[in-house]
Structures are given as C-alpha cells and as structure tokens.
Design a protein that fits this description.
Elements (H helix, E strand, L loop, with lengths): L1 H12 L4 H18 L13 H10 L20 E5 L15 E5 H11 L1 H4 L13
Antiparallel strand pairs: 1-2
Length: 132
Amino acid sequence: ELSSLLEEAKRIAGEKDAVNLLKKVLRSYVREKKTRVSTPKRHTRYVPTRLARDVKQRDEFRCTYVGPNGVRCNQKAHLEIDHVRPWAKGGSSHDIDNLRCLCRMHNLFVAKKDFPTFWAGNTGELSNRDNV
C-alpha cells in the first residue's frame, strides 16, 4: 500500500526521487502545523469568560444604562455584555473599556439606535418610547 501511495504521489507531484518528495511533504506538513496556533482571532465577538466576569464586577452586577433623566437602570437580572462601540463597527471584544453590562431590554434599545436600518419595521420586544 505504501509503495502504491508513493508512486501515485510521485506522479502527482512530478517528482521522480522519493527522498525529495518526502522532504517536500514533510516541510509542508511542518509549516502547516506551525501556523496552526489555537489563539483567538483578533476580531471576534467572543468575550473571554474572565473578561466578562471582570466587566460584571466593575459594573456592580447591574445594568449601566443611564436614561435621559440621569437615572441609572437598577436591573440586576438578564444582564448581557454589550460593546460600547459595536463589534460590527470595529469594536473590540478584548478591551474592557469597550464592554459594559446592559439588561436585555436596554441592550436591544441600544442596538435599535446603533442599527436603525436593521430594525426598520421590526419593533421586536422594544417599545417606541425614546426614554426607556
């Protein structure tokens, strides 16, 4: 089986010398393995668990939305990590200063303001009030 694989590989690669073919294959394999590093991609929506925990602790485990009247939301349930500068607009998921806690309602409210064309005609769970 090995002999037939080697012969077919020599034919496909156009290489007559088995030693040179094996060197090429091994170099390619090693180069491929070296470049495969399991680090997170630079621009990803994923917020590392440790960072999400730090954001929640910094924000005192409550929504950080402040309404037009200057009152901060007191919701402590259904918290979500939100990007201050949206990820879709180049915001980072690895910068603690770009992350905040918002309750589900305020996260959707902010998304509606940030992406009005997406929400056009789609009211979802949000009311039409601007002073949520």
